[in-house]
Automatic annotation (TrEMBL):
Protein name according to UniProt: Membrane protein
Species this chain originates from: Gandjariella thermophila
Annotated InterPro entries: LolA/LolB/LppX (IPR029046), Sporulation_related (IPR052944), TAT_signal (IPR006311)
PANTHER family: SPORULATION PROTEIN YDCC
Positions with biased composition (Polar residues): 292-306
Region listing for Disordered, in residue ranges: 121-152, 243-316
Annotated Basic and acidic residues bias: 133-143, 254-266
Amino acid sequence: MNRRRTALAAAAAGTVAGVVGLGVLAMPAGAGPAPSLPPTSPEQLVQSVLTAKPTAMNGTVQVVNKLGLPALPGLPQAADGTTEARVWTDGQRRGRLSLPQNNGEKVYVDDGSTLWQWDSTTRTVTRSPQHAEPAKPKDKHEGVLPNATDPASAAQQMLATVEKTSTVSVDGTDWVAGRPVYDLVLTPKPTERTLLREVRVAADSETRIPVRLSVFANGSSDPALQVGFTQLTIGPQDPKLFRFTPPPGATVRNSDEQPQGDHEKAGQSSRPTVVGDGWDSVLIGRLPAQAQPGTSRPVTSRPGTSNDRHGRSSEDPMALVQRFGTPTSGPWGSGWLFSTKVGTALVTSDGRVAVGAVPAQVLTEAIGQAK
């Protein structure tokens, strides 16, 4: 697994935010009469989406979240409601993502060789060196984790993951951000153990790139989460958007840096693995070394945060786990369980993490199988 995919997997497995990572971006349904488009079969549409070439574009993405999660410190997108983001991509593996925050913004810039993360609130820059060319997958699960700056790619990779274990159909046409689209519907086969009833992917009729992703939970007729654009412009982008220079006075650090004293614990961490396939895939990983149980140290709180009785910040992953999780135990050990309409996460007391769009029983079985 290359560094970009490892970093994204660790982010999903590192905190309860991994559940939110089942979908972060959303948009409302199209309006007006459905466009008239040439007929296509489900098989043809799936193949055209999976083989669609990356396209240079920019757009505004809206978050409509009905997962039922509480508002988490430092992660306002977790709570039910609507937020927006801006995205840019040059179609050549370079991209930019801007996420507004209460007191600033977080910006992610992938320049093709380095992934830069800028937090204007803390004036911190984190850089993650990348390989010049994408690494070849070592197994069937690699490549299914999304590019942080390209939501269209994320939907494309999701489709590749569940297509073979789904019943696929085309449910007419629609409009997304003023562009005509085909509505592709994926329903899990009866053998799949998942919390999801169906996923709908709106594919742009011209480019075939996914421009909307709607996730429906079992027992609900309304989407728990939707992914897409409210404004979308296809075409060349300014190359300056994909270059990043740390602002004067910013703190710059590398993503693989460990605070002093954490290096021994870092060796205990392993790369995330996947147990199962299709709709009941479970991502297994570990909390970052500095967040492992037993490694807590006094933390100086930023404004608006507090420290618990162990001296941990209220934004520390383990502090969040213990505050919002439901205690649970089994043959695999003990830990805390988190549930939403479309996914479940399990964090064990020894720092292991399991995340999936599955019931809790599937998580505990998977974490027992993981090595």
